[in-house]
Structure formats: C-alpha cells, structure tokens
Amino acid sequence: ITHRAHKSQTDGSSVALSMRRAEFIEQAWAAVGHGSREEYGDLFDSVDVSREGWVDWEHLASFLLLGLFEKEEHARNAAVPRWRPARTLPATHGGPVQSVAHLGTSGRYLSASKEGTLAVWSEDLTLLKTHRLANDSVMPKDLWVTGMVLLANVNKIAVSFTCKEVCFYDLLSKQEFSCQYKVHSLCNTPISLHYWHHPQRPEQAVLSIGDVAGQVSGLCFRSALISLFERPSMSVEHDSVVSISWAELQQGHHRCCYTVTHTAHGAHWVRTGEPAALDPSPPPHTSQRPSSLVLAWKEASAGPLRVTSFHTEKGLADLDYHPGLNLIATAGLNNQVCLWNPYVVSKPVGVLRGHVTSVVAVQFMLAKKQLISFSKDKVLRVWDVASQLCLQRLAGIFPKTPECKMLVFFHEERSRLLLSFNSVLLLLQAQEDAGRRVASHDSSVTCVLYNSLFRQVGAVWCCAPWQACAL
Q1: Which of 441, 430, 466 is nearest to 79 (CA)?
Q2: Quick one: pLDDT at residue 312?
Q3: Which of 168, 218, 317, 434 has the fewest CB within 10 Å, making it most exposed?
Q4: Do residue 330 and residue 224 come from a single domain?
C-alpha cells in the first residue's frame, strides 16, 4: 500500500498521492489481496471524515495508527491485575484501623487505629515504629480516634476524636507528631475527614468534616503554606499547642481561614467524602439514607454553599472520584456499584452488578481506568469502567473474621492494595506490568537506524562477541 500511495520523482524522492474513493478501493484491494470492496469503501469513508472526497497516505496512516493505539490502550486497560500472594502486616494496632495514608515526600505509610496508635511503615511496608497519639482533653483509656487525613501540601496530618476535636500534628517537627493546633468544641462528633488543596495554588485548601448529626463542615484555608490558623500572640511559646474553638472560626476571628456548612444529609451519619476537583469546595459526601450522595460547591469566597442531591436507593458506604473520566463511583448498600456524572443527578450513567452483599468500599485505578470494589462478604472485584464488565473476582484469600470494620486503600504509584479487617492489615501487591514496552530482541540492541523513505526502524544487535545481526 505504501508503494502504491507514493509516486517516485526523478531525483529518487517520492511524494504522496491523493486518491479518490473508487481509485482507493481498487488500489487497496489489489495491494492487500483479500477482503471485499465494500470494506475498503467503508475504510475510505472512515478516513475521509471531512468528506473532501480524497485521501492520501498521511491520512490513511494516521487513521490506522490511531486505531492501533486505541486497541492497544483498550487491551492494556482490560488487562487483569496479577496479584502476588497476600501478605499480612505485623500486628501493631489494638483496635480497628480507621485510616491509611502515604507520605509522598518520604515514601512511608501511616496507619491510625481507634485507640490512638499511629504506625509508621517503610516504603516496603516494614514496620518502623509506633506512636501513641496524645490528647490532653481525655484520659488515654478514653481516647477514640474516628479519622485521619494527610495534609500533603503542609506536611501535617489531621486527626478527629470523639471528644468533638480535630488535632493537627506536624510531620517535620523535632518532636515527631507534635500537636500544633487543636480545634475543639465542634457541634457534633466528627467521623470522617477529607482534604483537598489547589494543584496550582497550594495555599488554598479545604478540610471537610462529616459528623454523626448529618452535618458537613468545611474549613477553607486562604494561606495554608504560611499558617493554617493565626497564633494568639508572640508571648505564647512557639512549641505550645494553639487551641481554637469552633465558634471562633465560625465568627471569622481567623483571617487565614473561614468555615462553610451544609446539612443536606438530614440527621444521618456522614460516612465518607471525596475531594473532587470540580471546584475548591467541600467534596461530595455519603450517608446511609436514601438520596445520600450530596455534592456541595462554592462559587465565591463568600456566601452559602450550593448543594445538590443525587437520587440513590438505600444508602451508600463509600465513594471515589476519577478526575480524568469525571465519574463518581459509589458503594451501595443495595449490593450495587453505581457510576455517576457529577452534573446528572437523576440516575447513574452505569450500574455494576455482581456483588451479593453490601459494597463497603470502592477505589479507582486511575492509570488503567479500572475500579476496585469490595463487599461485606469479603469479595473483591475489579471492573473495566469503559465496558462496565467485571474483569476479576477474588475471594477466599482474606481473613475469616466475624463482623468487622473494613477499609481499602490503593496506592496508584506502587500498585499496592491495602485492606484492613479490624486491626489486621493485609497487602496485595500487583506485579509490574510491562505496559507498552516490547522486548523485540533476545540480546542487547547496539544500533538503531531510521529509514525516512519507508518510515521504518531497523536495529542491529549482538548475538555473540564475534557476530552481529541486522533487521
């Protein structure tokens, strides 16, 4: 086809020919030797999208390469993860694990449990040390951690407690995990924390807090890189904890931040949320009630939140957001995983069926455009988002524990899946995928040449110390 689509010049060069539909059909049919003329006519119509009535080699080659790329991309996205044997991490927590985070700067992992144990794991998930979180508001035996979230742009973690407090611990202080700020006297007990910061303007950030009374509150920071809150005066020691009441924040006593609130969940517990990059606003949250998916956003620095509710059956246990596909995935108590367009609230754009018990967790695999879901009966499924088909089902490899709190954390960069069953942490490591890399030779390639006439690449490689072969 390449030879027929080019015309040789007297100087040895060639120019691409433009062919009309009838000529293209005859030339392609004669060159390939099989297929029907109708098929080549359909190929011409697909290449000639602007309906100019002619195509040349550049148009045809671009169309074929694009088609091959899309097929390869689809095959890569549909590839089933190959998990290594599950590994149980050393027992460090005395109560249910409430949250897991990855520290991008150091490569370490953090896990926090209900009784206040903070475990630090190395990059290969070897236990480095444990730390007991301190809060002077309650006795150690009465301490109850409900959530933890990483504030990546300011190297801090925020931890919520049943004593209606949120404490901010510094990861870079000399005294490790020292408490810098404590927000106390919240209206209700916080049970979920989520954090978002602007990718281009990291000084702008939002910490959203969901509580047991159905209220979602947002702490919106204007200058997070400088200071989250204002320190009272220079007379106060620099290393002392700055205690801030929630009423102070609501009344605007701190110029570096302000609060927003909505109660669209009624009186039902706000289980989880996800910082969707639709707007620097509190993320969508879920609760265990009908119409439990709520999206709140803010159009200006002042004024109330705008809220919209999605129509859902029963309740939701978890959600995740895919910024590239602009999709929200929800884990339903009705055994279904639903995919939502944030701008279409009437019904989901996709329903993934297959679980026989309530779905407790969902997590997107962003690079492969796949979705992980985990159900109450300890069955893990991997879905292809495009086709909405189940690619993989894993069962029987998870701890046989009774009714327990389960958590799913997927680290995209290392293809690691961490699952918690009460105080037990389990690791599933995906084997490395070669992706688009193709091993075309058994020996080291020593030279590569490009033929501009045929637009092909030739390689020379060594078969033995005294031999050379060419392609």
Answers
A1: 430
A2: 81
A3: 434
A4: no
Inside any domain, residue 108: no
Residues contacting residue 456 through CB under 8 Å, at least 6 positions apart:
450
Whether 214 and 220 have beta carbons less than 8 Å apart is answered as: no
Q: DSSP string spanning 2-54?
A: TTTTEEE-TTS-EEEPPEEHHHHHHHHHHHH--S-HHHHHHHHHHH-TT--SE
Domain co-membership, 390 together with 445: no
Reported pTM: 0.77
> What confidence score (pLDDT) does residue 49 get?
85
- When pLDDT is cut at 50, 70 and 90, the band that residue 362 belongs to is very high
Cβ contacts of 323 within 8 Å, gap of 6 or more: 276, 277, 366
Number of structural domains (the chain) is 4
Looking at per-residue confidence, does 48 or 434 come out higher?
48
Kindly indicate the confidence band of residue 289, based on its pLDDT and cuts at 50, 70 and 90: low
Q: Is residue 113 part of a domain?
A: no
383 and 294 within one domain: no
- Has residue 16 got a pLDDT over 70? no
Same domain assignment for residues 427 and 461? no
109 lies in some domain: no
Domain that includes residue 453, residue range:
439-471
pLDDT of 174 > 70? The answer is yes
CB distance 362 to 320 below 8 Å? yes
140: which DSSP letter?
G
